[in-house]
Amino acid sequence: IVGTIEKQHGGKLLIATDFAGKLEIEAAKIKGYVSDKKVNVALGSGDRLVGSISKPAAGEKSGVDTAIGPIAVQPEQVAAIWPEGQEHPDVIAKIDALKPKWTTRLEGGVNRKEGNTDSLEGRAKVEILRKTADDQLKFYASADYAEQNNVRNRSEYIAGTRYENNITDRLYWYIRSELENDEFEDLDLRATAAGGLGYYWIKEKIQDLKTSVGAGYRYVDTDLSPADPGNRRDGGQGEMIVSLDGGHVSGPWRVDWYGSYGFRLDDYDALVSLTHTVGSSDRVRAGLEVAAKSRR
Q1: What's the whole-model pTM score?
Q2: What confidence tens digit (pLDDT) does each residue in 58-95 have?
Q3: What is the 3-state secondary structure (H, E, C) of the chain?
Q4: Residue that wins the pLDDT comparison between 256 and 30
Q5: In this predicted structure, what is the pLDDT of residue 294?
Q6: Residues 225/230/236/241 CA torsion (nearest 10 deg)
Q7: What is the side-by-side order of every strand in the sheet holding 12-17?
Q8: How far apart are CA 180 and CA 83, in angstroms?
């Protein structure tokens, strides 16, 4: 294969060619290298060479033409190759991992029916995530609205933030805050602030599963009368919360789930969503979401 060696790293050799673009080749299948340009060659022993790579004669090893003369190397001895004057791929990977990556997720749906009974239902949700190798920060907001014969019968609005910081590769601490308004729960405001520890039981590219335990403070302002049993929520009180969160990707399909439980007021939230990519891009997905909650 004729082309420009861009790098070899992580068991893969990346070559830029004129006829097929960039090709990625398993390093274990390489029998030899030739490069007329100087490159950095890192060996599995920890040694590093700089020079062009000459074509081996029959039965001989490839040679790196260094300033002190050619040094023979076998392809299996090579751990990494990268252009002269650039950083080691390990260093570049660490720098890239520390750079924040922003993603945005938008969901929405509207259902309109006309006839003997006119109805309108609408739901919208947005999530903005800033993620690095060490931490992640999420902002989210949602709105759920419905009316029947021009009479509103559902109106809920939620907004919040959540921050996680890694203690180890799997253990993390977090803080979160949330504001909620729900007209038909007689809820003018529910404000929650909490923090605690969490652990990733599974942390892979295509799936993750984590649990968290935390303590927090919740302030509630309701429209209920003092004699209403539901008014036990009114005012401020401490709370202990446990949660389960995860997701799995299989081809074009993605499933996500979330659940939390508050011990003091016997509250719970649960959500499961199943989506499928639309078209060839992973940017647009369609699917369904099922949610349940209890506010006793």
Answers
A1: 0.68
A2: 656 677 888 888 888 888 888 899 988 888 888 888 88
A3: CCCEEEEEECCEEEEEECCCEEEEEEHHHCCCCCEEEEEEEEECCCCEEEEEEECCCCCCCEEEEECCEEEEECHHHEEEEEECCCCCHHHHHHHHHHCCEEEEEEEEEEEEECCCCCEEEEEEEEEEEEECCCEEEEEEEEEEEEEECCEEEEEEEEEEEEEEEECCCCEEEEEEEEEEEEHHHCEEEEEEEEEEEEEEEEECCCEEEEEEEEEEEEEEEECCCCCCHHHHHCEEEEEEEEEEEEEEEECCEEEEEEEEEECCCCEEEEEEEEEEECCCCCCCEEEEEEEEEECC
A4: 256
A5: 76
A6: -170
A7: 21-26, 12-17, 4-9, 78-83, 35-43, 48-54, 62-66, 69-73
A8: 54
Residue 222 tokens, joined = 């309701």
How many angstroms from the chain centroid is the CA of residue 70? 46
Q: Give the pair of three-digit tokens for residue 40.
A: 């950095």
pLDDT tens digits for 170-181? 999 999 999 999
The long-range contacts involving 92-99, CB below 8 angstroms and separated by at least 24 positions, are 93/9, 94/133, 97/132, 97/133, 98/132, 98/133, 98/134, 99/132
